[in-house]
Amino acid sequence: MITLDGKRAIVTGGATGIGRATARVLTELGARVVIADIDTDGGQQTAKDTGGVFVRCDVSRREDCEAVAAVAQEQFGGVDVLFNNAGIIRRSTICEITEDDWDLVMAVNVRSIMLMSRLVIPGMAAQGGGSIINTGSGWGISGGASAISYCASKGAVVNMTRAMAIDHGPDNIRVNCVCPGDTATGMLAEEARQLGENPNAFYADAADRPLGRIGQPRDIAQTVAFLASDAASFVSGAIIPVDGAGTA
Length: 248
Ligand code: NAI
Hints:
The chain is built from nine helices and seven strands; from the N terminus they run βαβαβαβαβααβαααβ. With 248 residues, the chain is of the alpha/beta class. The chain has one domain: 3-Layer(aba) Sandwich (Rossmann fold). Helix 4 runs parallel beside helix 6. It is globular, with a radius of gyration of 17 Å. The two termini are 30 Å apart. The mean pLDDT is 96. It binds 1,4-dihydronicotinamide adenine dinucleotide. 1,4-dihydronicotinamide adenine dinucleotide binds next to helix 1 and helix 7. One of its GO terms (molecular function) is oxidoreductase activity. Belongs to the short-chain dehydrogenases/reductases (SDR) family. Keywords: Oxidoreductase. Pfam families: adh_short_C2.
């Protein structure tokens, strides 16, 4: 049984989906959590569920990220765990995507990790270590159809995880990446909407997956909790698919 007793965590994208489930699991294991999200209603609900602290934040904006780090410092006295999880998708090929959508996806999925991580790394280094977990995607490893900016962004997340782990290993800061497969969250419904498809299509073929189902947010959250914990003390720079052996 792992424990996160005494750990102080930030979860971005914690208003819904994988982020909300992770805030819950981290709390169940003893951590205190700051939930950062652009969605105020959802974020406040997660804070209520977990006894955590919600900060409204657009993770692509430096000032907003600074406010999140400041709240963690003021309320908890520092940060042991950063879960860089907020993300968006735009379903389009390279010929279809607008420059604005390209920039938005890269800002929310990639720039955010740069902004948030460098706000907490000095404090982690000073206190003797910490754990950063980034959310990649199976498509960040294999690519996928009609999601060029998303695939590019998640490929960047995967590779920056390795680079961050190398740079900050000497500070005992571990940096890892979870790569979910299809997981039952609002993002799947949003993808279906963008493609003009029925959201149930993602669920209909679930029985054909190796484990007979797609992922649930808690499946991802439990892996994040392990990576956040001292049980993962020699796990760094790892890119971990959490996809039930499903295709990306
Ligand atoms: P979700 O849509 O339920 O959650 C995403 C969260 O990010 C939402 O709470 C949303 O409000 C927040 N967010 C979006 N833009 C933001 C911004 N600018 N600033 C702050 N917060 C913002 O989707 P899900 O599935 O929980 O996504 C979490 C992560 O998992 C994302 O990085 C996604 O790319 C990744 N992922 C999800 C998969 C899936 O099948 N659901 C598969 C592979 C990766």
